Amino acid sequence: MANINFTYVPGDGIGPEVGDAAMAVLKATAKKYGHVLEVEQHLIGGAAIDALNTPLPDETFASCKKTGAILLGAVGGPKWDHLKGADRPELGSLLPLRKNLNLYANIRPCKPYPALIDHAPLKRERLEGTDFVVMRELTGGIYFGDKGRDAQGAYDMCRYSKMEVKRIAIKAFDLAMTRKKKVTSVDKSNVLETSRLWRETVIKVAEGYPEVELEHLLVDAMTMHMLTKAQSFDVVLTENMFGDILTDEASVLAGSMGVIPSASTSDGTVGMYEPIHGSAPDIAGQGKANPLAMILSAAWMLNLSFGMETEATAIEAAVEAALEGGHITADLGGNLSTSQVGDWIADHVNQS
Ligand code: NAD
Ligand code: IPM
Ligand code: MN
Prior knowledge:
Elements: E1 3-11, H1 15-33, E2 36-41, H2 46-52, H3 58-67, E3 69-74, H4 89-100, E4 105-110, H5 124-127, E5 132-137, E6 147-149, E7 154-156, H6 162-177, E8 182-187, H7 193-206, E9 213-218, H8 219-228, E10 235-238, H9 240-254, E11 263-265, E12 271-273, H10 292-306, H11 309-325, H12 338-351
Parallel strand pairs: 1-2, 1-3, 3-12, 5-10, 8-9, 8-10
Antiparallel strand pairs: 4-5, 4-11, 6-7, 11-12
Helix pairs in contact: 1-10, 1-12, 6-7, 8-9, 10-11, 11-12
The structure holds nicotinamide-adenine-dinucleotide, 3-isopropylmalic acid and manganese (II) ion.
């Protein structure tokens, strides 16, 4: 019997709610397919600040490093918004986890489910056939540059090394080779020097992939193209902050913030899996959160960290069945609670 040893860090707001739903699905999957879950649950973010006075306790980081497979809910919320710099949940836990585990490649898919096409605010013909993946650089750029205040104001430095751009570009081209063989690199090279380096480096990497079509788009135009010709994209390669913003926009095509999972990977075997959404303080504690992004993130963990493709596919099929049958939360037009959706999917996996 295979052992699935991973670190579960539910975090704040809706993090523990969608996390509970994903854990119910993982338990049902383990039972059905005969593996053992060895879950190391730890505090992170605001919850860790409240209990232990630090957003990333040593034992949390040690467990993440040891298991190398991390399932994370979300961190942050109004309660901790008065905190500054690394005392904050986001800067003090999520960013150091990503950086210290070298999780530089963040993959975020956008493939609207047929059942959700009429739910999304865009016209059907703008959505049908959309299937792209954003390859977001996750450990560089403005997020990690020198930041601070001086007498006149504040600053955030944006830096990229050639190595940082090259390695994420290679990930994007490798992925494109397994898909529709197109990379759209998004930058702001008409203004930013880091974007000029980005574009030059991407062009050099592309020389090693003659079969892959490369296009460059400026990020401002990309926000428009994503709404008007989403079908034309395959792998969208972009830097840290642009990838953050563009993937929230992509969630509108997919139907909700609550349906897009993500995987953050490196060159080795370490992987962190989290929905792209945050702690959603506006709906936290009400059982309204859509757990699908978290459940799909858990499926990705089984597949990418533990090689359990069959199990991951069973979860993905159950998610699709929930959508087809209308077993969904209010953000998608349904009337089930977070835990009801989780339980429905767990049962479906069990009976599949
Ligand atoms: P958010 O993603 O939490 O919420 C944006 C909107 O989407 C809200 O209206 C929310 O109700 C809705 N939404 C999000 N997830 C949903 C779900 N699963 N089901 C239904 N609706 C959902 O973004 P925000 O409000 O800008 O940020 C709130 C907090 O979360 C901030 O402290 C922010 O720093 C943090 N955050 C954390 C992460 C993370 O931990 N990975 C990601 C994004 C934001
Ligand atoms: C995300 C989040 C984070 C980011 C925040 C909470 C630091 O928005 O994962 O999309 O900007 O990367
Ligand atoms: Mn974000």
